[in-house]
Design goal:
By secondary structure, the chain is mainly β. The chain contains six helices and 23 strands.
Length: about 375
């Protein structure tokens, strides 16, 4: 009997592999046996590889934390794939001041309430494709109210595991250890304290980017802080800068994330419309310069296209999406051309971190396993 079940599972996997992703999600509702096959990490990894899981689009907005009822813009990346905005506002949970996105990772979003009380925000893990969400229980440090929350990050790799993790980094100036890390494990819905004594320099803020089992924070000059999730240790990867002060006058890190499976950051120039693309080497030793891009402004007389006003929203090896002045441009690297896409319909404030950008992937991942 066991051999028959094995054969049936093999046949079932072969059939499921042929389905488009949206049909695969519908099939997961048929029965538990089908769902167990679809949730199997080996099947997920093979399916993603065979179907070239695309990032369908990006959600972005101006950085304005604690603003109620945050509105998100949506840009599809592939016109050949039917993709509409998953939402404009986050309204899946009742909050007095609304919700905003903190981080995204492989189809899941980490969100929090806009409550003004520093210690009382609620955090959620949300899957916009399935409209499912989970409220995170309060962490041990949050209950004690003796530390300052420095960073909140989301770690999820469905090819390796159906479970996600949420990482809190706390700072306590009265403690000799100063920094502590708490990790929420969705597998058993519990918090684990770890990483006591880890070093988190103050210029590493915001949320970390998850890549190859490691959380990464980008700093001034393109330096990188890495937190190994398994070993629970941090290390810093610096860059050889002749003068950090001079670098700050001339350049800034504008975009950081995983693009096309590669950990990448974009360094833009402040005095001209140019940028450099840096990729992390596969052995995690250092960033290497992949390419340098100079943009020729189509209409130099247009006051909305000033030099040094670039903001990069997305950048893989095929396409790039940038904001220049008040216009959005798409860069086609294969055709070596840059064309205006649309207007932003809002004034660009030219700050170094003007926009928050989140990648959208359709995922059937369970947020409440």
């Amino acid at each position: 009997m066991a051999s028959i079940l094995t054969i049936n599972n093999d046949i079932l996997e072969s059939i499921l592999m042929l389905l488009p992703y949206r049909d695969l999600v519908n099939m997961s509702l048929v029965c538990r046996d089908v769902l167990s096959v679809i949730k199997n990490p080996c099947f997920v990894s093979y399916y993603r590889r065979e179907h070239n899981f695309p990032i369908l689009g990006i959600l972005w907005n101006k950085d304005d934390f604690f603003r109620s009822n945050t509105m998100y813009n949506y840009l599809p990346l592939y016109w050949t794939i039917s993709s509409s905005a998953p939402f404009q506002r986050l309204d899946f949970a009742n909050g007095p001041s609304g919700l905003f996105i903190v981080a995204s990772c492989n189809g899941l979003f980490l969100c929090r309430t806009c409550d003004n009380c520093y210690f009382l925000p609620s955090y959620y893990v949300y899957n916009p494709f399935t409209s499912r969400y989970k409220v995170l229980p309060s962490s041990p440090s949050e209950k004690k109210r003796s530390s300052t929350l420095r960073s909140v990050s989301l770690a999820f790799e469905p090819a390796n595991s159906p479970y996600y993790k949420v990482v809190f980094v706390w700072y306590n100036k009265t403690s000799s250890r100063r920094f502590s890390v708490e990790i929420f494990y969705s597998e058993n819905s519990s918090w684990v304290c770890c990483g006591d004594g880890c070093i988190f320099p103050f210029h590493y803020m915001k949320s970390g980017v998850f890549w190859k089992g490691i959380l990464n924070w980008i700093g001034d000059g393109g330096s990188l802080l890495c937190f190994d999730m398994d070993k629970q240790v941090t290390r810093e990867i610096g860059r050889n800068q002749n003068s950090l002060t001079q670098w700050r006058r001339e350049k800034k890190v504008n975009c950081f994330g995983v693009f096309g499976g590669v950990l990448r950051f974009i360094e833009i120039y402040k005095n001209r419309n140019a940028f450099d693309i840096y990729d992390m080497q596969s052995n995690y030793s250092s960033f290497i310069l992949k390419s340098h891009c100079e943009l020729e402004v189509m209409d130099p007389s247009d006051p909305r296209l000033p030099n040094g006003s670039i903001s990069v929203l997305y950048m893989d090896d095929s396409i790039g999406i940038i904001i220049l002045g008040e216009k959005i441009f798409i860069i086609d690297f294969r055709e070596q051309k840059c064309e205006q896409w649309c207007d932003t319909h809002q004034e660009h404030n030219h700050s170094s971190d003007s926009f928050s950008v989140f990648q959208y992937i359709e995922s059937s991942a369970e947020v409440c396993p």
